[in-house]
Write a sequence for this structure.
């Protein structure tokens, strides 16, 4: 069993690579967003440095002020490809879990994001791509874990508004039909409406 004394020297270089220091360090304390923990940019009015957070919240909320010399910020590509999608996946999982008792997060070693029903009954794979044609091409190459489910559903995020999510869903559906991809497409709201009842 690995203890902290063993792990820290091993993880140190990785943590420093994932969380580099600020390129330019301000002389005064900087604010952190109360919604997502990102830095608050000192504009007029102040706003969160996370574009996704700005889509979800109209106004910035400063949680606290921190000494910039002590700050390390997670690399942008990790936020884009891991943190933001993961946040959406957990939010959908929690919403479904409140409504039914047959919800599994990352079943079968992360085969899909969320499983519903019995073993490999309904698989949900939540995607936060900006480009629906790019996402369609990705599934045209490979269905991934959804191929193992009776119903494989790609869930697209709203990216700000419900109407925008519906437009993204419709665009992806059209591309799936064009490429003959045998998967369903829903928005987060579609999933909650279709599967939000008690199991």
């Amino acid at each position: 069993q690995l203890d902290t004394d063993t792990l820290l020297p091993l993880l140190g270089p990785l943590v420093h690579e994932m969380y580099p220091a600020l390129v330019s360090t301000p002389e005064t304390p900087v604010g952190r967003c109360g919604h997502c923990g990102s830095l608050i940019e000192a504009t007029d009015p102040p706003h969160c440095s996370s574009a996704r957070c700005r889509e979800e919240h109209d106004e910035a909320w400063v949680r606290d002020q921190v000494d910039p010399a002590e700050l390390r910020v997670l690399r942008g590509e990790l936020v884009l490809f891991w943190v933001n999608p993961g946040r959406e996946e957990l939010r959908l999982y929690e919403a479904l879990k409140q409504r039914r008792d047959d919800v599994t997060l990352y079943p079968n070693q992360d085969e899909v994001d969320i499983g519903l029903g019995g073993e490999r009954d309904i698989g949900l794979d939540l995607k936060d791509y900006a480009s629906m044609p790019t996402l369609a091409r990705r599934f045209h190459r490979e269905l991934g874990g959804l191929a193992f489910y009776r119903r494989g559903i790609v869930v697209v995020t709203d990216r700000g508004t419900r109407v925008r999510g519906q437009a993204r869903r419709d665009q992806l559906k059209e591309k799936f039909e064009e490429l003959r991809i045998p998967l369903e497409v829903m928005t987060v709201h579609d999933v909650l409406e279709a599967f939000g009842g008690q199991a």
Q: What stands out?
A: The mean pLDDT is 87.
